[in-house]
Specification:
Length: about 240
């Protein structure tokens, strides 16, 4: 396996000592098939223990290590050194308050997620075993079940950068997952939440969200389907 000499620039910020963010440079020798997350670990463990980042599973499932890598929103654990070498630039995702270094405050993001009621709502008597659904009905919203709430889509969105009140692509994706679920009974309520100046109509179809999504969800298509449901007054199309 080939070795790579990597020059790394990281946007650092410690609220206890810094008035504003600043760049710090490192040099790392690593494997070309290593993850960017491996590089950050190598810096933290062997060069600068003050570097702060968020991570968990390291396998692209938890979504906790989303950051701006060479100018694009990506997961550090899914981005390989060979795809970014010889220079690596790392910043926190944009549009959310920075707590320290690469760690942002996710609460504003999750507050918008909670607004769309991202759970099954059905007031009929529960069946003895489960609420059955046909494969065709399940396929209707399959794409939007893949979201891992990494915030890469929302924090790549120009509309979100322009106005943090915009509910954002991730929340709309989560709403889509339930709006088109045949077992759910709160479609009207969710559509009402999204039928707002800072709801689905703030989307300008920039497609940044689609490019940023590590799960390859067709987010713009999902947002378009929510808009159609509002315009047509039905999810049957």
């Amino acid at each position: 396996m080939s070795k790579v000499h990597l020059k790394v620039r990281i946007l650092r910020f410690n609220p206890e000592t810094d008035k504003k963010p600043h760049w710090k440079e490192y040099e790392v020798e690593t494997e070309e098939n290593a993850q960017v997350l491996d590089v950050l670990h190598q810096i933290k463990w062997y060069q600068d223990g003050t570097l702060t980042l968020r991570r968990s599973c390291a396998h692209g499932i938890c979504g906790s290590d989303a950051m701006v890598i060479n100018g694009r929103n990506r997961l550090a654990c899914k981005t390989l050194v060979k795809d970014v070498a010889p220079r690596l630039t790392v910043e926190p995702i944009r549009g959310l308050p920075v707590i320290k270094d690469l760690v942002v405050d996710m609460e504003p993001f999750f507050a918008k997620y909670r607004e769309v009621m991202p759970w099954l709502i059905n007031t009929t008597k529960p069946p003895e075993h489960e609420r059955l659904q046909s494969p065709e009905d399940r396929a209707r919203f399959d794409d939007t079940t893949k979201c891992i709430l990494c915030a890469a889509c929302t924090t790549s969105c120009p509309s979100f950068w322009a106005n943090g009140r915009y509910i954002g692509p991730a929340a709309i994706v989560q709403a889509h997952r339930w709006i088109f679920d045949s077992r759910d009974q709160a479609t009207a309520e969710r559509l009402q939440i999204l039928n707002d100046r800072f709801g689905v109509w703030s989307c300008r179809t920039a497609f940044n969200c689609v490019e940023a999504c590590p799960r390859e969800i067709n987010i713009t298509k999902a947002i378009g389907e929510v808009k159609k449901a509002l315009l047509y007054g039905t999810t049957e199309f």
